[in-house]
Structure formats: structure tokens, C-alpha cells
């Protein structure tokens, strides 16, 4: 992964996360929960991204699990 | 924040046009050329009909639940818990659209125009751009779209002239000679792209006149149908279906074929300078829909508060998804239509039934019956419907009744194009009639009577 991207992404993320943790007391509970979920998901997915993409979560494979079958079915139909 | 968004009929039509058209220009046409061969330009009729059906249901929802967006309506219809699950599924679908577009555009730019720039940088620039718009509202995106979409549309139409010296009509012949199965499949594949019309459900609160909203969306859909038909006609006429079906980015190569004179070279830079802002608006619309959806879970009044974490999460997932262009293309062509049909068909059926049961606004059109304008409106609706039906009949007649002669093919091809264009003009007339009716009714309320 590009180092410039990594530096920029992590710096901005940490700054924004600290700012959120600092101001979260003034937010309604529901809003806090949604924001926590979004930040949590970003951290989780970013951790996955640091390994080979197919090692921890083969997202591309999961999304395309049906495509070859549909293509095959379409080819047979034609 | 959310309730300040109001967009007019023209902005709605052009936004719909932008959202549906720009997404299919990256790589989608090559799948159509692979399936329907030289008749791929007949592939827009069924998806146009499907998108009009979804637009109709969305307008019905506006009539039954005025001032509410789709996510709020889902909570009303399905309740807190099951509604939450349905909304999460819709959010996942919107997230998929955003990731597909961002990754597709990044891959496209990396492979064609910016080969030295790391793909993560192209991707983060696009994410930062949509996050900038995420601080604003749909109104801003609609206004920016008003600058770029007409130019983009006109340039797309001008390609027929610009590529005139490369064009050969023989590459389209014999017209309508591929099997009915191929034509049918080529008409189902674009449903995945046309399903993006569902995004406008997130902005139902921005519509004040349901019938005008529907007409505007219908006009936008027909702009897309006609433009895509023309672009496919140009693509197949310049390259032929064999080359078009084997290229990853057929439209890029098509634009590169423009050689008007020796000094007018690299026209694709100009074309893509216009295409990129128009495409960015499409991603912005999807992103705003995503923010509105997230907002429905945690206090929707100020959705920009979710802008940063949502944008950063989309950046990470966009990098994670679709490592190769064929993966992305395969998903777009074969899985997305299935996802759209499985997700949207049950939802729009339930939405339609519930909306009919709870209809609050009975007024169909904002003008009195019997007036000249009303008659013109009815006439436009009927002409549009008959023209679209004529398109279907032309294809069927070309397939089953006419011989596969050169003359028969030309007659069906020209009839199809003319009828599609008439449907487009009729949808414009319908939209304008409704808008004038709305303005006259507003004036009548102030003073005077409605002119007969």
C-alpha cells in the first residue's frame, strides 16, 4: 500500500477519532452508537487491509461467488 | 439540514440522467456487445420500463407519506426492529454501489489516464471529493449537475458526427438477426445499473409534487435510455461487436478513435474532463443517500456529522473490494442485476401496496381537467406510452415477422430509434405541461382564474 496514502489516512483518522471521543458526551446516545459502529468498522476493515486481502476476509470472492454461476447459466441459455 | 432540500423537476430529471448514465460508461457496454452482438443497441427497453416502474412506486410513496424519505417510510411500514434490518440491507446495497463506482473509476484512471499515480491516491481524492459534497445537500449536487450534464449529453450525441469518418453501417448488419434469447438477456443485464434509480428514494422528502416528480424521473430515465442506445449504436458502428466485446474500457477506446483533423488530437482528454465531474456527481448522490440512511438510525437532522467516518469506511472498503477489473466487471454485469431484482422487487411491491392503502394526496395532477394544458398533458402521456410500446413491437416484428433482409433491418432500426426519440420528447412535454400547470395553479390561488 502506498505510504503517502497510509500516512495521510491514519493521521486524519486518529485526529478525527480523538476529536469524536472528546466531544461525544454532548451527542445523543443513538448518534454516539452509530458513530462508534462506523469508526469500529473502519478500524476492523483497515486491519484486514494490512494483510493479504484474501487472507482474513475474501470480500471480492464473497461478492463474486454467484457471478460465474450466473454467467455459465446465461451462456447455456444462449 | 435534511428538510431544506428541495430540487425542481429539471434538476431531478438531469440528476436521474446522470446517475444512470455515467455509471455504465466505464466498462458495461462490452458485456452487452458480448451478449447481443451487433443488436446490443436494442438492449435498453426492458431496463427503461423497470426504472419507470420503480420511479412510479417512489412517486406513490411521496403521495402516501409526504415529507418522508424511504428510510423513514421503511421504519413506519416495518416497525422499529424489522425496519432497522431492512434499512441495513438497503444501506449495504447503496454502499455496494458507491464502492463499485469508486473502485471502477480508480481502476479506470489507473489503467488509462494516470498509470503512474498509485490507485490509493486516486481513490482517496475521489473519497475526499464526495466527502466535501457530503457536508452540503442534494441541492448543491443538483446545481453542479446542471452545468455538466447538458454538456456531457450534447458531447455524447456529437460523437456520432465526430466519429463519422470511422463509422461503418455494415458493422451493424444484419439488424435484429441475433436470437430472441440473446436480446432478452441483453435487456436484463442493464437492470442492475438502472436499479440505481432506487437511490432517489432517499430524497423523497425533497419532492413536493408527486406526479411532477414521477414525470421528471421518467424523463431522466428516457434520456438515459436514448443516450445509451445512441452510444451503443456509435460504438458498434465504429468498432463492431467483436472488438467492443473484448475491450475492458470500450468507451475510452471509442473516444480515442476521434480523428477529426491531424491537429485535433487527444480529444479524449476533453471528453473525460467533462465525464469525470458528471460521474463524480453520481457518486455524490449515492453517498448522500448513504448518509441519509445512516442518519435515519441516529438522529437524521444533521447527517453531515457521519460524513467523516462514513467516507473513511468507504475508502477502506473500496480498496478491499474487487482487486481486478474483470472481477468488478463480472459483478456489475451478472451479480448486480440479480441483487437488484432480489432486493428491489419485493420492496417496491410492499411499498406500492402500503402506499395505496395510506394515500393522503389524492390529486393526480396539479391542473383542472378539461383545460387545453390538461389535454396536452394527457396527449403527451399517451404518445409516450404508445411510442415505448411501439419500440417493443418493432423489436418483436423485426425478430419474428420481417425477413432478415437489409431493407427490413434498416426499416426496423430506424423505426425503433424514431419511436424511442418520440418517447423522449413526449416525456419532456409531459413534464413541462405538469410544471406549467403547477405554476398556473399557484398563480390562480393568488388571483384570477385558470385559462380554458
Separation of the first and last Cα atoms of chain A: 42 Å
For this structure, the CATH topology of the largest domain in chain B is: Amino acid/polyamine transporter I
Low-confidence stretches of chain A: none
- What is the highest CATH level, the class of the largest domain in chain B? Mainly Alpha
Mean pLDDT of chain A: 83
Inertia-based shape of chain A: elongated
Largest sheet of chain A: none
Count of discrete alpha- or pi-helical segments spanning 4 or more residues of chain B: 16
Number of distinct helices of chain A: 5
Number of domains of chain B: 2
In percent, how helical is the residue content of chain B?
over 70%
Order of helices and strands of chain B: HHHHHHHHHHHHHHHH
Q: Classify the helix fraction of chain A into a percent range.
A: over 70%
- Counted up, domains of chain A total 1
Specify the CATH architecture of the largest domain in chain B: Up-down Bundle
Task: Tell me the Rg of chain A in angstroms.
Answer: 19 Å
List the helices and strands of chain A in order: HHHHH
Low-pLDDT windows of residues of chain B: 448-452
How many β-strands of chain B, per DSSP? 0
Pfam families (chain B): Spore_permease (PF03845)
Family (chain B): Belongs to the amino acid-polyamine-organocation (APC) superfamily. Spore germination protein (SGP) (TC 2.A.3.9) family.
Keywords (chain B): Germination, Membrane, Transmembrane, Transmembrane helix, Transport
Main location (chain B): membrane
Amino acid at each position: 500500500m502506498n505510504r503517502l496514502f497510509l500516512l495521510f489516512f491514519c493521521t486524519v483518522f486518529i485526529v478525527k477519532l480523538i476529536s469524536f471521543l472528546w466531544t461525544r458526551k454532548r451527542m445523543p446516545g443513538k448518534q454516539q452508537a452509530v458513530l462508534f459502529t462506523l469508526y469500529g468498522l473502519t478500524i476492523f476493515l483497515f486491519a484486514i487491509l494490512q494483510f493479504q486481502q484474501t487472507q482474513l476476509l475474501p470480500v471480492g470472492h464473497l461478492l463474486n461467488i454467484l457471478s460465474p454461476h450466473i454467467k455459465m447459466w446465461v451462456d447455456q441459455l444462449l | 439540514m435534511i428538510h431544506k432540500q428541495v430540487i425542481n423537476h429539471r434538476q431531478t430529471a438531469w440528476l436521474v440522467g446522470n446517475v444512470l448514465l455515467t455509471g455504465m460508461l466505464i466498462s458495461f457496454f462490452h458485456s452487452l456487445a458480448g451478449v447481443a452482438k451487433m443488436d446490443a443497441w436494442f438492449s435498453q427497453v426492458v431496463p427503461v420500463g423497470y426504472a419507470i416502474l420503480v420511479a412510479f412506486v417512489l412517486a406513490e410513496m411521496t403521495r402516501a407519506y409526504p415529507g418522508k424519505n424511504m428510510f423513514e417510510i421503511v421504519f413506519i411500514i416495518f416497525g422499529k426492529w424489522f425496519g432497522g434490518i431492512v434499512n441495513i440491507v438497503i444501506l449495504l446495497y447503496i454502499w455496494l454501489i458507491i464502492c463499485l463506482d469508486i473502485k471502477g473509476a480508480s481502476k479506470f484512471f489507473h489503467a488509462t489516464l494516470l498509470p503512474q499515480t498509485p490507485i490509493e491516491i486516486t481513490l482517496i481524492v475521489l473519497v475526499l471529493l464526495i466527502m466535501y459534497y457530503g457536508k452540503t445537500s442534494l441541492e448543491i449536487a443538483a446545481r453542479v449537475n446542471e452545468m455538466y450534464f447538458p454538456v456531457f449529453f450534447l458531447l455524447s450525441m456529437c460523437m456520432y458526427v465526430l466519429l463519422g469518418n470511422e463509422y461503418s453501417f455494415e458493422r451493424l448488419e444484419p439488424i435484429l438477426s441475433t436470437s430472441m434469447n440473446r436480446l432478452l438477456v441483453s435487456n436484463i443485464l442493464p437492470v442492475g445499473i438502472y436499479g440505481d434509480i432506487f437511490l432517489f428514494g432517499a430524497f423523497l422528502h425533497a419532492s413536493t409534487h408527486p406526479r411532477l416528480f414521477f414525470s421528471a424521473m421518467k424523463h431522466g430515465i428516457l434520456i438515459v435510455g436514448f443516450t445509451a442506445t445512441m452510444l451503443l449504436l456509435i460504438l458498434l458502428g465504429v468498432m463492431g461487436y467483436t472488438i467492443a466485446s473484448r475491450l475492458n474500457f470500450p468507451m475510452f477506446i471509442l473516444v480515442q478513435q476521434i480523428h477529426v483533423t491531424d491537429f485535433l488530437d487527444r480529444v479524449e482528454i476533453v471528453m473525460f474532463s467533462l465525464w469525470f465531474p458528471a460521474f463524480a456527481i453520481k457518486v455524490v448522490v449515492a453517498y448522500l443517500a448513504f448518509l441519509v440512511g445512516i442518519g435515519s438510525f441516529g438522529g437524521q437532522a444533521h447527517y453531515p456529522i457521519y460524513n467523516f467516518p462514513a467516507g473513511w469506511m468507504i475508502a477502506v472498503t473500496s480498496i478491499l473490494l474487487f482487486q481486478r477489473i474483470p472481477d468488478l466487471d463480472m459483478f456489475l454485469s451478472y451479480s448486480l442485476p440479480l441483487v437488484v431484482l432480489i432486493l428491489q422487487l419485493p420492496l417496491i411491491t410492499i411499498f406500492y401496496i402500503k402506499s395505496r392503502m395510506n394515500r393522503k394526496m389524492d390529486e393526480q395532477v396539479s391542473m383542472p381537467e378539461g383545460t387545453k394544458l390538461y389535454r396536452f398533458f394527457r396527449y403527451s402521456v399517451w404518445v409516450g406510452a404508445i411510442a415505448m410500446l411501439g419500440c417493443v413491437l418493432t423489436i418483436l416484428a423485426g425478430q419474428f415477422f420481417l425477413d432478415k433482409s437489409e431493407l427490413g433491418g434498416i426499416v426496423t432500426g430506424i423505426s425503433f430509434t424514431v419511436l424511442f426519440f418520440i418517447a423522449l420528447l413526449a416525456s419532456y412535454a409531459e413534464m413541462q405541461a405538469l410544471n406549467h400547470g403547477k405554476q398556473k395553479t399557484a398563480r390562480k390561488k393568488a388571483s384570477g382564474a385558470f385559462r380554458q
